[in-house]
């Protein structure tokens, strides 16, 4: 099977390619802006098509002759209209699916994508689900929960004062998943196309409160760690200071509010298929702790 993969240098994409390359059944075409980041994958037999996902012609040319497409809309942190940007990238993917009669698309969506509004950047993934569904191709929408990797930007304050500052309530209960488990689910999805459109929610091993998550992080890191809820205004100032644009900043505040008020949640009850194995403690031990211990 010939598979085209977007964002092969990202959290999910890189792991997805690594797993697929351990199986000789797959021929891989990787769509990337900078092929020099994919030397290992190229040496292992993948073809790289160089280009940008905002380029509609690039997507059509790069996906000619493929049987399946893994499609992820990467963040453009500075986009003036973030939802408009998401819709543009999705529309380019849809154009490639139609033009090249691609039979199966695995779309990286999100928990909460059943809602058209009120979920921040997830609403753009709601739009993408509909746009790909309308192509008539077989489409698997993967809807992962909150990424455990979202803790990585907090290593500095965990290291300095043992605090994680977020505009999320300490008692907000969320499902958390490691991106390695999303990549494994994408491999399964590519191997088992649906007949039509399907949603697969991916919810990590369990739901936890932000307070419980901070306690787990502290236990693994070896010092007390506390979740501190900041106000939306404080969070806005922090996002803007990090260089995040006004549009995405507003959407992030909306999604955080959605988590706090239970608006952003799975559409379906948790099932065995939706439950993925990597525990937060395992993720912290393998990813967060080494990053915290590395000299600043
Ligand atoms: N964070 C969460 O809790 C959460 C939850 C559910 C769903 N999601 C969704 O998950 C997705 C992010 O997944 P991820 O963490 O695997 O992504 P990621 O690590 O941020 O990877 C994005 C990759 O996309 C590439 N890229 C960026 N802009 C591009 C462009 N215009 N054209 C081509 N390539 C481009 C970048 O590669 P180069 O820089 O090497 O070019 C980068 O490696 C988003 O769609 C998000 O909405 C996130």
Structure description:
It is a single chain. With 296 residues, this protein is α/β, with parallel strands linked by helices. It has a domain at 2-147 and 177-202: Rossmann fold. The protein is built from eleven helices and twelve strands. It is globular, with a radius of gyration of 19 Å. It starts with a strand and ends with a helix. NADP nicotinamide-adenine-dinucleotide phosphate is lined by residues 7, 9-13, 32-34, 37, 52-54, 72-75, 108, 110, 121, 125, 144, 146-147, 150, 179. NADP nicotinamide-adenine-dinucleotide phosphate binds next to helix 1 and strand 7.
Mean pLDDT across every amino acid position: 97
CATH structural architecture of the domain at 2-147 and 177-202: 3-Layer(aba) Sandwich
Task: Please tell me what the overall shape is.
Answer: globular
Class by alpha and beta content: alpha/beta
CATH class of the domain at 2-147 and 177-202: Alpha Beta
Q: State Rg.
A: 19 Å
Widest sheet, order of strands: 3-2-1-4-5-6-10
Name the poorly predicted regions.
none
Features:
single chain, 296 residues, alpha/beta, Rossmann fold, 7-stranded parallel beta sheet, 3-stranded mixed beta sheet, 11 helices, 12 strands, globular, binds NADP nicotinamide-adenine-dinucleotide phosphate
Write the layout of secondary structure elements.
Layout: E1 2-6, H1 11-21, E2 27-32, H2 39-43, E3 47-50, H3 56-62, E4 68-71, H4 82-100, E5 104-108, H5 122-133, E6 138-144, E7 146-147, H6 155-161, E8 163-166, E9 173-177, H7 179-191, E10 197-202, E11 207-209, H8 210-221, E12 226-229, H9 232-241, H10 246-260, H11 280-293
Parallel strand pairs: 1-2, 1-4, 2-3, 4-5, 5-6, 6-10, 7-9, 8-12
Antiparallel strand pairs: 9-11
Helix pairs in contact: 1-7, 3-4, 4-5, 6-11, 8-11, 9-10
The protein binds NADP nicotinamide-adenine-dinucleotide phosphate (NAP).
NADP nicotinamide-adenine-dinucleotide phosphate is lined by residues 7, 9-13, 32-34, 37, 52-54, 72-75, 108, 110, 121, 125, 144, 146-147, 150, 179.
């Amino acid at each position: 099977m010939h598979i085209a993969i977007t964002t092969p240098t990202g959290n999910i994409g890189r792991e997805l390619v690594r797993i697929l390359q351990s199986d000789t059944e797959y021929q891989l075409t990787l769509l990337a802006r900078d092929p020099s980041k994919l030397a290992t994958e190229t040496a292992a037999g993948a073809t790289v098509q160089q280009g940008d996902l905002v380029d509609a012609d690039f997507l059509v040319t790069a996906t000619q002759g493929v049987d399946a497409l893994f499609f992820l809309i990467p963040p453009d942190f500075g986009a003036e209209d973030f939802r408009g940007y998401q819709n543009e990238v999705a529309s380019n993917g849809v154009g490639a699916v139609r033009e090249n009669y691609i039979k199966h698309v695995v779309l990286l969506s999100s928990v909460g994508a059943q809602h058209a509004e009120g979920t921040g950047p997830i609403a753009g993934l709601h739009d993408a689900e509909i746009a790909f569904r309308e192509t008539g191709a077989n489409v698997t929408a993967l809807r992962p929960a909150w990424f455990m990797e979202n803790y990585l930007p907090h290593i500095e304050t965990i290291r300095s004062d043992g605090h994680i500052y977020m505009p999320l309530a300490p008692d907000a209960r969320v499902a958390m998943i490691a991106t390695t488990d999303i990549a494994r689910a994408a491999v399964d999805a590519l191997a088992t196309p649906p007949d039509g459109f399907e949603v697969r929610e991916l919810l990590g091993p369990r739901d936890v409160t932000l307070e419980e998550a901070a306690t787990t992080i502290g236990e693994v890191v070896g010092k007390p760690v506390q979740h501190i809820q900041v106000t939306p205004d404080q969070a806005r100032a922090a996002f803007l200071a990090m260089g995040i644009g006004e549009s995405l900043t507003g959407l992030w505040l909306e999604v955080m509010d959605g988590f706090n008020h239970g608006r952003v949640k799975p559409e379906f009850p948790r099932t065995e298929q939706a439950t993925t194995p990597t525990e937060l403690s395992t993720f912290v031990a393998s990813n967060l702790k080494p990053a915290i211990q590395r000299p600043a």
